[in-house]
Amino acid sequence: IFVQVNQAGQMEHIAYHPQDTQVLNLVPPPAICGPGCALGSRSPPPQQQESPLTFGITGSEGQSGYSSIISQPAVQKLLLDVAHVPRTPEFLDAALKGTGVKRRALEKLRLVRQQDGECVISFPLFTSEDVRKVRAVAERAVRSLVSALTARRSEIDALLKHYGARDVARKTVAYIVLGCFSLDWDGLDLTAEKGYRSVPEVTIGGGKFIPWAEERSDLSLKGIYWGSHNDREGDFCFTSFGDHFSLPRYAFPDVFWRWQLPTHAVSKVSDRLKPAVERAMRQMIRGMIRQVGRIMFALRDGERTLAELTHLVEMDAEEANALLTLLGKLEYVEKHGERFRSQALVLSERDGAMVQQLRRIGWEVIEAWLSANYDDVKAQLSGLTAIRYGVPYSVVFTQIWHYLFGTANRQLVEVGMFVDPYALNRRYKGFIPVVWHKSLGDLR
Fold this sequence. Notes:
Elements: E1 2-5, E2 11-15, H1 21-24, H2 46-49, E3 53-60, H3 66-70, H4 73-84, H5 89-95, H6 103-108, E4 112-115, E5 118-121, E6 125-126, H7 128-141, H8 143-150, H9 153-160, H10 170-193, E7 208-215, E8 227-233, E9 236-242, H11 254-258, H12 274-298, E10 304-305, H13 306-313, H14 317-329, E11 333-336, E12 339-342, E13 345-347, H15 352-380, H16 385-388, H17 393-414, E14 431-437
Parallel strand pairs: 6-7, 13-14
Antiparallel strand pairs: 1-2, 1-3, 3-7, 4-5, 8-9, 9-14, 10-12, 11-12
Helix pairs in contact: 7-17, 8-15, 8-17, 10-15, 10-17
């Protein structure tokens, strides 16, 4: 799992492997603002507004306490200070007074370490200057990656012709399968398998993660298509893939996440009944998610009337009509006369061969590009703050790879190979949604 804290100081999921059920079934505890809450429009409290860093993890933090520690503005300011100038242990001890955080906790979390009597940064912390450098290098470096993919466009287009749904542009399929499934998910697998990037190690509190942070700046994330939000219910997987400039996303699973049971909904229920009520209401929501998946898959092969849909998905007309109204508002379906058709991309088991071959092309292109360019990119970024303080480049590379493939996706939109998430005819901009069968997650 790859998560970050957004500009409001709230945690949001950027990407994770959708076949990981432990991650997919995660419901954040009430004290932590999870993926759904991250998409809300509330203003951050004053303390969050003072936070100088966005932060996140690759992995699972377990009971390490990482989020509660690094979310404190005083801790963030100290880490940013240490990133600029090594400090003595005594300096850190004094700076942490009143926070409830001890220097030893920062050391156990591998956020700082001692070197020659001073404390230095020991995790991927990117200053604003670091981020500008990474983005400038990515902008230049991925042009050859984009060229390598466009060089195989005739092969890719031939495969895309196998997608039979009439009303979904093939560029949408390319954006999801090559941009998300391949460059994002497979790219993370490949870079780990080849040793280009480090995988999370077990930390304190049963966690297994690599932390990272970035200094806030005026740089926009518009067009950096690196964010897959994913959830699964049974055989149905829901993904929205786009940048993190246009939030909130009005798509699934983001809408589902915002439906997580609010505390006030059970505030008047007795403590004895609350757990049972919460579980029951969550199951009601999961049941609705399954029904949405069944409707979308029923529309995968063509238009249906309401009567046909209710028969296919075994749902009464009132419930089906309510969900179809919602799906229409979200631009997942549209109605023509008495018939409904899918507007959103749906990938079923019958699309498996196409998806697998497209991902294979992506894998080959990424593998060849990394072999030819990894060392050059590494050399250009050798002056990054974390690397200067001894953090291995492979540890830093997870975040770098996100900038690389996110930038490549934007360039592939610009050359016309991918659908444009900001096209004028799109009501909800900055992302593309897809509903897909779980079996496609393992195809490569």
